[in-house]
Specification:
Shape: globular
Strand content: 35-45%
Radius of gyration: 18 Å
Bound molecules: beta-L-arabinofuranose
Length: 324
Amino acid sequence: MKTPKYLCPGDYMADPSANVFNGRLYIYPSHDWESGIPENDNGDHFNMKDYHVFSTDDIEGEALPVDHGVILDTADIPWAGRQLWDNDVVEKDGKYYLIFSLKDKCDVFHLGVAVADRPEGPFKPMADPIKGSYSIDPCAFKDDDGQVYVYFGGLWGGQLQRYRDNKHLECARLQEGAEPALPSRVARMRDDMMEFAEEPQPVIIVDAEGKPLRADDPHRFFEASWMHKYQGKYYFSYSTGDSHLLCYAIGDSPYGPFTFGGEILTPVVGWTTHHSIVEFKGKWYLFHHDSVPSGDRTWLRSMKVVEIEYTEDGHIKTIQGTQE
Ligand code: FUB
């Protein structure tokens, strides 16, 4: 599949997290809708309130993935304020854990956990957010030894700039110019998947000389962390936010450091770009979104998929984003 294909033309779905469970492909997006909230730099217009899950056993075929309906609603989450943003699902010991971003009743983002017996849910949310969690965009990655790591964080409306060394700052400040860019975070999960097993740690991306990427580098981390493993190496991928790229960096451990590898996708139509990468039936796919079908209404995004390829030395070939 060399041309990107839209996956849910009848509705607006964004931030797709794709995972393979029991040989079937499951896609967990955020659910965009026309809530009427005016657009601003904090992303208040992304006022989502539920999740659906989609699945298929033939991503190359003409049939669209099956929509299994609502799997979690903010009305059922005891600590919910507003804005159910990106999520991801991981299987551990036969249960399925949905890790999600949501604002609490004081308008502060945290990560929550909801549990199901099947990948298509329904998911039962825990009473409280994960202790010590903050910001947005979780990616739950299970390594070959069964340990689960959650990568998270997002700038601006994602509130990551409000934290240093996992402490809330009195006064948030974004790094500028030659200062090292603000990194994403990673924490290993406890075996019961209810809490972090350790303090979140920074995910450092370095250039070819081993220097951390600068705050003014258009390839620096902004949001939308994803982790996948290819030929024994750890590929940390992410959105650069205001420079509208999807990029990746390669490391030898789930904690990094990660050496900048290149661009996966050049800018698409819309304010945000977001993705996941998964292997299914021997091919690798990039799930992402754009705002073409909604006529560039940035709060109404449509998820799509395209195949990705690696070069012989393990680099990802850049895909040109669709501009119309
Ligand atoms: O969907 C809301 C936010 O927009 C996500 O959390 C970000 O990654 C961006 O896609």
